[in-house]
Amino acid sequence: PGLHIFAIAFALEVSVGKTNTVMALNNSNVLLPCVFSTCIGFQDLVFTWYFNSTELVADPAPLPLQIYQGKIKNKASEPTVIQHNPRVEFVGSTTKKDHNISIVLNSVEFSDAGKYTCHVKNPMERNAEHNATIFLTVVHKMVETDNTVTLIIVGVVGGLIGLLILFMLIKRVVLFIIKKTQDGKKECLVSSSGNDNTENGLAGSKAEQKAPPKA
Questions:
Q1: How many CA atoms lie within 13 A of 122 on its CB side?
Q2: Integer Cα distance of 30 and 106 in angstroms
Q3: What is the Cα–Cα distance from 67 to 173, expressed in whole angstroms?
Q4: How many beta carbons lie within 10 A of that of residue 83, not counting itself?
Q5: Which of 122, 137, 154, 195 falls 20 to 30 Å from 209 in CA-CA distance?
Q6: Contact of 66 with 50, CB cutoff 8 Å
Q7: Is residue 94 part of a domain?
Q8: DSSP string covering 77-101
Q9: Which domain holds residue 67?
């Protein structure tokens, strides 16, 4: 039974993607992504987006600020809105393979910076709950990435490659010159050797032509 409960508890999963940080320009619109999955299925599933809190705490502490809440009857239907902030727009779709429950926050302000939690509750899984969190930063202007270091590295690597190519060319030229020099020496040696043999032969012929001395 314990294992069965464990499997049920972790069948529902919620994800906000590979990174949980988002940066937005002041007065722009920003996408807050979220998808959920379940291997069991769902019915009357409720999803809620919270701002800066996920805990339903006791009074007199403030309740979490719900900026959007929707309900999905089944996998063949899109969600119906239960509650939403006027600046929040639902942009997902729950009838596709990835049950997308992403929202867009319009005209963001500096006060909108903080923690946004996507929470899902599935009655079909004994009211199993799961959530994922995004941290939003609002800036006055986007910081341009300084590519100086990258350009320096690219320049150094390019220079090294150029030097290597130049070295290979010089090596080939030197080897070519050495080969030509060696070939020239061989020709000289062959020519010299031929001349010596010819002279020896001629001398030998002349010696043979001399008459033997008279006794």
A1: 23
A2: 7
A3: 74
A4: 11
A5: 195
A6: yes
A7: yes
A8: S--EEEEE-TTEEE--BSSSSSEE-
A9: 14-139
- pLDDT, tens digit, 9 for 90 and up, residues 130-185: 999 999 999 988 766 555 655 666 666 677 787 778 878 888 888 888 877 776 65
Query: Does some domain include residue 169?
Result: no
Instruction: Classify 199 as helix, strand or coil.
Output: helix
Q: Reduced to 3 states, what is the DSSP secondary structure of residue 13?
A: strand
Which residues lie closer than 8 Å to 130 by C-beta, 6 or more apart?
Answer: 12, 13, 14, 36, 119, 120
10 Å Cβ neighbour count for 16? 21
Based on the structure, what is the number of domains in the chain? 1
Of all residues in the chain, the percent with pLDDT exceeding 70 is: 67
Phi, psi of 96 (to 5 degrees): -95, 175
- Which amino acid is it at 124? M
Residue 83 counted as domain residue: yes
CATH (domain of 35): 2.60.40.10
| 121 three-state secondary structure | strand
**How many other CB atoms sit within 10 Å of the CB of residue 126?**
11
Phi, psi of 56 (to 5 degrees): -85, 90
Phi, psi (5° rounding) for residue 147? -95, 15
Which ranges of the chain does DSSP label H, i.e. alpha helix?
2-9, 148-209
Quick check: bond before 60 cis, omega within 30? yes
Please report whether residue 108 resides in a domain.
yes
Chain center to CA of 168: 35
